[in-house]
UniProtKB/TrEMBL annotation:
Protein name: methylated-DNA--[protein]-cysteine S-methyltransferase
Protein keywords: DNA damage, DNA repair, Methyltransferase, Transferase
Keyword Metal-binding: no
Reaction it catalyzes: a 4-O-methyl-thymidine in DNA + L-cysteinyl-[protein] = a thymidine in DNA + S-methyl-L-cysteinyl-[protein]; a 6-O-methyl-2'-deoxyguanosine in DNA + L-cysteinyl-[protein] = S-methyl-L-cysteinyl-[protein] + a 2'-deoxyguanosine in DNA
Assigned protein family: Belongs to the MGMT family.
Source species, domain of life: Bacteria
Gene Ontology MF term list: methylated-DNA-[protein]-cysteine S-methyltransferase activity
Database matches in SUPFAM superfamilies: Methylated DNA-protein cysteine methyltransferase domain, Methylated DNA-protein cysteine methyltransferase, C-terminal domain
InterPro entries: MethylDNA_cys_MeTrfase_AS (IPR001497), MethylDNA_cys_MeTrfase_DNA-bd (IPR014048), MethylDNA_cys_MeTrfase_DNAb (IPR036217), MGMT_N_sf (IPR036631), WH-like_DNA-bd_sf (IPR036388)
Length: 183
């Protein structure tokens, strides 16, 4: 969930509706996709109401491309997103966690500890969890594919919480029993 959108760049906003996650709102800058929110328009009121925030043609095209690709994901027609991402304003650790998370293949899951090891920080599993809790690009950067070492679902900050995380993993063909990933 995005608590507050802080963005000085002009952004274009689009919405994908009619999918299992409800209204998914997308914002893109000229650089790339900047935010994906399961919270509907409430996260983006400032962007929409700021009349000085006139989006460029490129940001509009990126927002619409992201909307199409996210809908294709929900329709099970897309497994890999092909979008430029705008992560330049994020702290280095968070950016590295998110970039590595983007490489987790569709239909698979890894643990927080495995992700920490992949970024050369093997003792940073909790910090990895904290970085993922503030993922501005849910679905596109698939933080739902990261689980606890015992396969259990720990936190998911999108609307619906763990139920949404489980639904996304099941959409991708993962087996879940109770609240645990079956490996």
């Amino acid at each position: 969930m995005i608590n507050q959108v802080n963005q000085d760049k002009p952004m274009a906003v689009a919405m994908v509706d009619g999918n299992p996650a409800g209204a998914v709102v997308i914002a893109a800058s000229d650089v790339g996709l900047a935010y994906v929110s399961f919270q509907g328009l409430q996260d983006f009121k400032a962007l929409i109401l700021d009349k000085a925030n006139i989006p460029s043609t490129r940001s509009l095209e990126l927002a619409h491309a992201a909307g199409r690709q996210i809908q294709e994901y929900f329709d099970r027609k897309r497994k890999i997103f092909d979008l430029p991402l705008d992560l330049e304003d994020l702290p280095d650790f968070r950016r590295r966690v998110l970039q590595e998370t983007a490489h987790i293949p569709y239909g698979t899951a890894i643990t927080y500890g495995e992700l920490a090891a992949r970024i050369q920080q093997p003792k940073a599993a909790r910090a990895v969890g904290g970085a993922l809790a503030r993922n501005p690009l849910a679905i596109v950067i698939p933080c739902h594919r990261v689980v606890a070492s015992d396969g259990s679902m720990h936190g998911f900050s999108a609307a619906g919480g763990i139920a949404t995380k489980i639904a996304l993993l099941q959409l991708e063909g993962c087996r879940i029993q109770g609240d645990r990933l079956v490996r």
